[in-house]
Structures are given as C-alpha cells and as structure tokens.
Amino acid sequence: MPADEELFGSLLYLEANAGALKSQEARCEAAKTRVLLWEYLREQTDLHQVKAVDDARAAGTEWAGLASALAVNAPNAAYNKARRMKAAVLAVASCDNVSVRRTPEAVREAERQAVARLAADRRAEEEAARRHSLLAPVASRLVEHRDGLDDDDDITFWLDQIEALLPSCRTPTQLVSLDTYVQALVREAHRSERTAGRAAATTVGARAALAAARGLVAG
Questions:
Q1: How many CB atoms lie within 10 A of CB 182?
Q2: How far is 181 from 160, CA to CA, in rounded Å?
Q3: Rounded to an integer, what distance in angstroms lies between the CA atom of residue 165 and that of residue 210?
Q4: Do the Cβ atoms of 139 and 182 come closer than 8 Å?
Q5: Distant-in-sequence, close-in-space partners of 86: CB < 8 Å, separation ≥ 6
Q6: CA-to-CA distance for 215 and 15, rounded, in angstroms?
Q7: CA-based, 20 to 30 A from 62: which of 15, 68, 101, 133?
Q8: Which of 195, 154, 203, 161 is CA-nearest to residue 178?
Q9: Which residues contact 46 (CB under 8 A, 6 or more apart)?
C-alpha cells in the first residue's frame, strides 16, 4: 500500500493499466478498490482544503478573497461552499458517523460537539495522568516491600503482575490494568487476613505500603 503522498500517482498508474488484468473478476475487484481509494483521497482533500480555508480566515482573509480559490463567484457562495466542506469533514470525523446537515447552524452545532468531545478527551487524559501519579508510587512500594507481605499464592500472583507491568505502564489500558492488579491485591490481602486470622503485612514498610494501597482503593 503506497503512502498517502504517493497514492494519487499510484491510482493514475493503475487506471492507465487497468486493461492489463486478464480476468474479469480481477478487473472488477481492482476497479472497486480504486473507487474506495479515490473516495479516501477525496475525503483527505476536503479535510486539507477546510484547514487551508480556516488558516486563510484566521489570517484575516475575507470571503471575497476566497471566492476565486473556491471556484465560486461571490463571497456568500464561498462561505456556503466552505460550510458544506466543513459539514462533510465533520461527518467523516464524527465518532458515530451521523451525517451533518449542510447548513451553517448544523455545522456550528457539529463543531460545538467536536470541541466538547476534545475537551472530554483532555479531561479523561488529565484524570488518567492524575490517577497514575497516585497509583504508580503505591504500586512501587508494594513491590519494594513484597518480602514483608503474606506469601499467599494469590497475593504473590498479583505482586508479580504489578511488578511486570510497572516499568512500561504508560497507556490508559495499562493504567487500568495496574489499577485492577492493585485492587485485586488489596482484596486478596483482606481475604487472607479474614481467613488466616493474621496480618497480611509483617514489616513496617509492608504495612505502610498496604495501608497506602487500601487508602487509594477506598478513595
């Protein structure tokens, strides 16, 4: 598969040499693939042209100055065409693939929703970073003082999982996994204390580490 910047030339080559394919089935599949790839290129063209229009407007260009570039004759036609392109781009980018009506009001609403999604994503990333800043030190202390924790097989298992994940814990999925492992360890420590009738942590450091994990899980 060629890179995006090579795709246009590749499609022109395939178009010019379509007759080289011998079977009807091969010609049919190749043509359908070209249709799909041209559609992909068209969507990318809309995206980049919309960005160019936004940059021109941000730089102070009036709609009258964009009319000829957008192949229309009047400022209002330039505005309407830009809105239609923005609607198409927003429809493609929409998470739920809901079509965006090509009216200024609908586009503004779609833009508002896009901004809201970005803000929600940022909040989720910030919360994940905050959670990681609290969770990683607690998990590290559990591993550091693992010799002072009950050697119950289940507790040992979750300590092994935590220790294996900690060095590479970067992504949201890994963070969720680390959180799950710490919660499981706390749960098993509680079960062990209840069934065995003795503390799951036998040293000062291990008790402090387990207390910190319990506090994090409870919070």
A1: 22
A2: 10
A3: 18
A4: yes
A5: 50, 107, 111
A6: 65
A7: 101
A8: 161
A9: 85, 88, 89, 92
Got the DSSP string for the chain?
---HHHHHHHHHHHHHTGGG--SHHHHHHHHHHHHHHHHHHHHHHHHHHHHHHHHHHHTT--HHHHTTTTT-SSHHHHHHHHHHHHHHHHHHH-TT-PPPPSSHHHHHHHHHHHHHHHHHHHHHHHHHHHHHHHHHHHHHHHHHTGGGB---HHHHHHHHHHHHHGGG--SHHHHHHHHHHHHHHHHHHHHHHHHHSS-SB-SHHHHHHHHHHHHHHH-
Residues 21 and 33 sit within 8 Å (Cβ to Cβ)? no
Q: Kindly state the tokens that stand for 63.
A: 């709609």
Q: pTM, whole model, 2 decimals?
A: 0.46
Averaged pLDDT, groups of 10, the chain, 219 residues long: 74 88 87 88 84 92 93 90 78 52 59 70 71 85 90 86 87 83 92 85 93 89
pLDDT at residue 52 in the model: 92
Please answer whether residues 216 and 134 qualify as being in contact, where contact means their C-beta atoms are separated by less than 8 angstroms: yes
